[in-house]
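Recall that a protein's primary structure is simply its ordered list of amino acids. Everything else, from secondary elements to tertiary packing, is in principle encoded there. The following example makes that idea concrete.
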Amino acid sequence: MGKRLSYTLWALLWCCCCAQADVFTSISHMTDLIYTEKDLVHSLREYIKAEESKLAAVKNWANRLDALTRVSTSDPEGYLGHPVNAYKLMKRLNAEWLELESLVLQNPSDGFISNMSTHRQYFPDEEDKMGAAKALMRLQDTYKLDSETFSKGKLPGFHSNALLTVDDCFDLGKTAYNDADYYHAVLWMQQSLKQLDSAEEAVVSKVDILDYLSYSVYQMGDLPRAIELTRRLVAIDPNHQRAGGNLRYFEKLLSKQIDEMGQAYEPTSEEPIQLGTYTRPKDHLPERETYEALCRGEGLKMNEARRSRLFCRYQNGKMNPRLLLKPMKEEDEWDSPHIVRYQDALTDSEIEKIKELARPKLARATVRDPKTGVLTTANYRVSKSAWLEGEDDPVIARVNQRIEDISGLTVDTAELLQVANYGVGGQYEPHYDFSRRPLDSNLKIDGNRLATFLNYVRTCSD
C-alpha cells in the first residue's frame, strides 16, 4: 500500500473564534440571507408605496363625496329636483360605490406576502438563532470580553461596531438560561438591566429581566445577591407570585446556611456583576484554557535563539519536474514540531473555482461518534463542509497533483478534498486528526491518516 495522505482544504473566515437548519454554521450560506433581506426590504417598500397609493385614492373619493353630500343634505328635495343630480345619485350608488368597495378590498400586501412565502423556506430556524447566540458567548469566553464591551460591538479585529440592544442582551441571556447555562445568563441579563437602567428603550420589562437574573444568580450560588435582586423585583411588582415564593425560599435557605456555619450575615457586594464575578464552570475539554489562550495569541512564544533557526527557501519536491521551473515558497513557522507554510500554494482563480464548486454542496460538518462509529453533528465542530473529487473539475485534479508534488505522498488513498466554511463563532475544538479507534472499519483498506494538508483560502484576522 502506498503512502497515504489525508488532506483538507479549509476556508477559515474568522480564526479561533429541507428545513434551513444550521445556517449559522457557514458564512457562505449566511451571505445569501443578506441578499434575501435586501430583497424583502425592497418588496416591503413596494408594498408601502402601493398602500399609500390606495389610501390616496380612497382619500380622494372621501373628499369628493364629502363635499357632494354637504350640498345634497342641505336641501335634499331641491337637490333631487334637478334630474342630473337624481341620475348621478343612482349612478353613484349603483356603480361608483361598488368601484370604491373593490378599491378598498384590494390587498396590496399580496405581492409582499407572496415574496415572504417564497423566501421563508430559507429563513433561519430556532436552532440557528440559538446556535448564533451560543457562538457569541463562545467568542466572549475565548477572547475574555465583558458583556458591555461585547454589546458595544468592540470585537478584536473589527473596526466597525454593531450594537446590541436591551432586548438583544435579554434574548442572549434567555438562550443561556433555557440551556441551563446560568453563568452566561447572569452576564447577559445583568447587561440588559444595566442598559435599561440607563434609559435605553426596550420591549422587555425590568420585572422580566430581574426574574431571570435573580434565579440565575441563585443557581450560581450567590444567595445574598439573589435575595437583593428578588427584593427589587417584588418592590416593582408586589403581586409577582413566583418572585414572592422565591424570596421566601431564598431567605429561608440563607438563614439555614448562616445557622449551620455559625457566621454573621454578610450583605451582598455593591459591586455590579461583571466578567470575573463568578467562575465559568469547567467543561469536557481539559485543554480549554490553553486552547483559548492560543486563540488570543498568548501561550508559548518563539525566542530569538529558536527564531534564528527558522528559514525561508524554495522547495522543488526533491527535483520534481513540475516544481523545477516554479518551486514552492517554503517558510518555517515552528521548529518543534516542525511546521512549514507554503506561500501562494493556490492561485486566486483556483480558490474562486473551488469555492464555486463547493458552495452548492456545503452541509453541516460531522464527526465520528467514538462509541458507535456513526457520523453525527457535534457542538465542538461548528462549520459546513463539502467534498470535491478530481473528476469534478480540472482545477481539483491540478490541486491534488500539486499536493502530491509538495508532500511526496500519493493521494491515491487519500480522502477527497474537503472545503470547510465557518460561520459565526465557528470552531473545531482541539482533536486528533487521525482515528484512535483500532477497530475502525474505515481503516481496513487504506489505513490511518499520515498527514493533513491545510490550505487557507482567506486571511484570518488576529
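The CA atoms of residues 342 and 387 lie 22 Å apart. Confidence is low (pLDDT under 50) at residues 1-21.
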